[in-house]
Amino acid sequence: MANNLESQVGEVVSVSRSATHTFSKETVEVIRLLVGLGVEGDAHMGKTVKHRSRVAQNPNQPNLRQVHLVHSELFDELRSAGFHVEPGQMGENITTRGINLLGLPIGTKLYIGEIAVVEITGLRNPCIQIDNFQSGLLNAVLDHDENGNLIRKAGVMAIVLTGGEIRVGDLVRVDLPPEPFRALERV
C-alpha cells in the first residue's frame, strides 16, 4: 500500500476561496496558504474551528479544517450520475487530479507547488447543504463498502504546515506518515 500511495504525483486543477460562509467558493488565479491558519481571505481561516456547526458546539476546538481538498475525479463520477459540479462549487479550496485523496491515511503530507505543505486531518462530512445546492447530491457523495460501512467521498480536510501560493498546474506530491497508518475519519 505505501509504495502505491506514496508514488502518486498529482496536480492542482483549481483553487477557490470565499470570505463568507457560502456553500460554494469562487475560483481564483491563486490562493495563499498561511501556516496554522488556512487560506488567506477564506471564511474558514483561523487557529480555532470556523465551521458554524462546530463553533456552536465548542468555539475553542482547534481548526482541523483549514484547507478543503477535493479530487476532480469525483466530479467525473458525479457527471456520469447526472450531476453537474464544477471546481469550487462543493466548497473546496483546492481541486486536485491524479491523487487518491480518500485513500490516504491521517497525517499524510501533501507538498503543493513550490513550498506549501498541508497535512491531512480527516474526511469532510457532507451535510444537507449539498442537497440545497443540487437535489440528490448528498446521496451521490455517500456510499457504502462491502461491509456496509459509510464512505464519505466529499473530499479531505487539512492543516497548513508550510505556507505559500498555490496555482492551477502546481504539482502535488504525497509523503505518507510512518506506519501503522490510521484510516481517515470525519473531522
From TrEMBL:
Domain of life of the source: Bacteria
Domain MOSC: start-end pairs: 25-175
InterPro entries: MoCF_Sase_C (IPR005302), MOSC_domain (IPR052716), Pyrv_Knase-like_insert_dom_sf (IPR011037)
Gene3D superfamilies: PK beta-barrel domain-like
SUPFAM superfamilies for the chain: PK beta-barrel domain-like
Stored Pfam families: MOSC (PF03473)
PANTHER family, A to Z: METAL-SULFUR CLUSTER BIOSYNTHESIS PROTEINS YUAD-RELATED, MOSC DOMAIN-CONTAINING PROTEIN
Protein name: MOSC domain-containing protein
